[in-house]
Amino acid sequence: MAPNDEYLNALNAWAPNLGEVFTTLGYLGSPSSTAWLASSPRSSDLRLLFDADGHVSASEMWRKILREDEIVASPVFMLILEHMRRNPVDMSSSLKDVRLDFSKSLANIAHRAADALYEDAKGSFAGHEIDVAIARYRVALSEFRFSIESQVLTESARRIATGKYATAVAMIGRWVQVSPATVSRALSYSKESMTLGNLKPETLTYRLELLVQQFDQTGDENLLQDALKLGGCRS
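The structure corresponding to this sequence follows.
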């Protein structure tokens, strides 16, 4: 059995449907999509997360990631998150042993997972893998929102999370329909990100796209006026 198949079988046995999610996101399947498994410095430890008593490994993995400030592949963060959500009591105890708070860790891992997915999605768009990019952006949206609504992110992390949520919605909206509620939330987060100091030119560009999206959905002429004013600020 190929290592990829073996890993997928173990993943499906532990968390049904997560293997399907990973395949949709382009993290399992072809040899190139599983490159993160071989390149991860913690690849040998990842299978430990599939065990019911893997909370000690998950806590230690997160502690080392924080301590060494290393770059971690999106699926690694997603696996740690999955274990935390499946085993909250044990994870809380294990994190406490390494002097980490469960709620803050959960929010920050969700934020890191979303950020990594967001960057992967950008790469997929650049490589013309539109379906994969949209799928990655959608999962990133979910984790960004979770981390933002937790109310435990630092101001800097919150500025990034709210801004990237808005950008991701704008990017998705270039290709497929986005729900009015999601567009409205993105505009709210965009405003918050700007209030927190995110005034990059691209921030205004994506906010403009969101205003146009919402105008198309609602026909509210005030939104069109807001978009025109914002366009004037950019010129």
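DSSP finds 13 helices and no strands in the chain.
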